Amino acid sequence: MKSFCLTALLFITLAGCSSNQSALNAHGHSAIALQHLIIGMIVICTVIWLIVTGFLAWTLIRRGEVRQDEVSTRIMTTSVKSAATATAVIVAGLTLASFYTTRSLSISGHPAVVVTVKAQQWWWQFIYKDQNDVTIFQTANELHVPVGENVQLELESIDVIHSFWVPSLAGKLDLIPGRRNLLTLRADRPGIYRGQCAEFCGLQHSHMALLVIAQDEVDFQRWAAGQAAAAIEPTVEEASAGKAVFNSKPCAACHTVRGTPAVGTSGPDLTHVGGRQTIAAGLLQTTRGSLAAWIADPQTVKPGNNMPTVPLTSDELRQLAAYMETLK
C-alpha cells in the first residue's frame, strides 16, 4: 500500500511537468530570463530548507546535551547574528536578480511585425499592421510570428481586465480598458506555443486560450499573404448555398468575410476561419462537425458568450458549416 501511494504521488507530481504551457519550457528571450530566475530561486530556497532541516535534526538529536554556560550562549548569539545577516544578503540578492530580470524582459531592436491585440469576453483579436500603422488583415485566437524576429504587441481590452500570457515566450502583461500596454515577443525556434488569459475575466475565463505559431520567414510570409487575400469563392454547391445562408442571416451583421457583403465588426473576422486550428478560443478543434455544433447552439458549447443562437434548418446548418470549412 505504501509503495502504491508513493507511485501515485510520483505520477501526480510528474503530471505538472507537461510542456504544453510551462514557464520552464522556455523558447523566447524573455521566457528564458524568467526561467533562470525561477530555477535560481528554487535552488536557493532548497539549500535554505536543507540547512534549516539539518539544524533542526541536529538540535533534536542533541536535545539532552543542551548547556547554559557562557560558551553555549556565545555560540547561540553568533548563530542568530549569522542567520540574520544571511537572510538580509539572500533577500537583497533575490531582489536584485528580480530587478535585472524585469529589465531583460524589454527586448531592444526594431520590431519586424506589429500586432494590435484586443481581448474581449472571451476571445482574442489580432490585427496585423504595416510600418505606417495601417491594418493589413486580422485574425482571431491564433497569433503567427516569424522565428528570431521581434514582434511588438499593442495590448488593449474591449471590456474588462484581461492578461496576455504565453509562458514559453514571455511573462504575462495585463490588458486594461482605456490603456495600451506594449509587449515584445521573440520566438527562438519554430513551434506552437499555447497561451492563456491569466486574469479572471468572467464565466468563460478558463476557455480564453490562444496559440502562438512561430514559423520561419518563408512560411510566415506565405501565411501572411494568404491572410491578406479575400475569401476564396466556394466551388462546391453545398458551400455556395452556405455562403448565401451566411449573407442572409444575422451572421453577416456580426462577422466580416472579406470579399463578400459581410462586414460586421462585433465578432471575429471569419475570412480564413477554416484554416485555424481551433475555434471558440481554443475550445474546439476546427472541424466541420465542431463548426456545426458551435453555430447550432453556441450557448451550450460556451455558456455566456456573446454569440446568439441563429434559427436554422438542418439543411441550412449543414450548408453553413460546409461554407465555413472552405474559408482557408
From TrEMBL:
<dbReference type="InterPro" id="IPR001505">
    <property type="entry name" value="Copper_CuA"/>
</dbReference>
<keyword id="KW-0813">Transport</keyword>
<dbReference type="GO" id="GO:0016491">
    <property type="term" value="F:oxidoreductase activity"/>
</dbReference>
<protein>
    <recommendedName>
        <fullName>Cytochrome aa3 subunit 2</fullName>
    </recommendedName>
</protein>
<keyword id="KW-0186">Copper</keyword>
<keyword id="KW-0732">Signal</keyword>
<keyword id="KW-0408">Iron</keyword>
<dbReference type="InterPro" id="IPR045187">
    <property type="entry name" value="CcO_II"/>
</dbReference>
<feature type="domain" description="Cytochrome oxidase subunit II copper A binding">
    <location>
        <begin position="110"/>
        <end position="226"/>
    </location>
</feature>
<dbReference type="Pfam" id="PF00116">
    <property type="entry name" value="COX2"/>
</dbReference>
<dbReference type="InterPro" id="IPR009056">
    <property type="entry name" value="Cyt_c-like_dom"/>
</dbReference>
<feature type="transmembrane region" description="Helical">
    <location>
        <begin position="35"/>
        <end position="61"/>
    </location>
</feature>
<feature type="signal peptide">
    <location>
        <begin position="1"/>
        <end position="23"/>
    </location>
</feature>
<dbReference type="InterPro" id="IPR034236">
    <property type="entry name" value="CuRO_CcO_Caa3_II"/>
</dbReference>
<comment type="function">
    <text>Subunits I and II form the functional core of the enzyme complex. Electrons originating in cytochrome c are transferred via heme a and Cu(A) to the binuclear center formed by heme a3 and Cu(B).</text>
</comment>
<keyword id="KW-0479">Metal-binding</keyword>
<dbReference type="GO" id="GO:0005507">
    <property type="term" value="F:copper ion binding"/>
</dbReference>
<dbReference type="GO" id="GO:0020037">
    <property type="term" value="F:heme binding"/>
</dbReference>
<keyword id="KW-0249">Electron transport</keyword>
<keyword id="KW-0472">Membrane</keyword>
<feature type="domain" description="Cytochrome c">
    <location>
        <begin position="237"/>
        <end position="328"/>
    </location>
</feature>
<dbReference type="GO" id="GO:0042773">
    <property type="term" value="P:ATP synthesis coupled electron transport"/>
</dbReference>
<dbReference type="GO" id="GO:0004129">
    <property type="term" value="F:cytochrome-c oxidase activity"/>
</dbReference>
<keyword id="KW-0812">Transmembrane</keyword>
<dbReference type="Pfam" id="PF00034">
    <property type="entry name" value="Cytochrom_C"/>
</dbReference>
<comment type="similarity">
    <text>Belongs to the cytochrome c oxidase subunit 2 family.</text>
</comment>
<dbReference type="InterPro" id="IPR014222">
    <property type="entry name" value="Cyt_c_oxidase_su2"/>
</dbReference>
<dbReference type="InterPro" id="IPR036909">
    <property type="entry name" value="Cyt_c-like_dom_sf"/>
</dbReference>
<dbReference type="InterPro" id="IPR008972">
    <property type="entry name" value="Cupredoxin"/>
</dbReference>
<keyword id="KW-1133">Transmembrane helix</keyword>
<keyword id="KW-0349">Heme</keyword>
<keyword id="KW-0679">Respiratory chain</keyword>
<dbReference type="InterPro" id="IPR002429">
    <property type="entry name" value="CcO_II-like_C"/>
</dbReference>
<feature type="transmembrane region" description="Helical">
    <location>
        <begin position="82"/>
        <end position="100"/>
    </location>
</feature>
<dbReference type="GO" id="GO:0016020">
    <property type="term" value="C:membrane"/>
</dbReference>
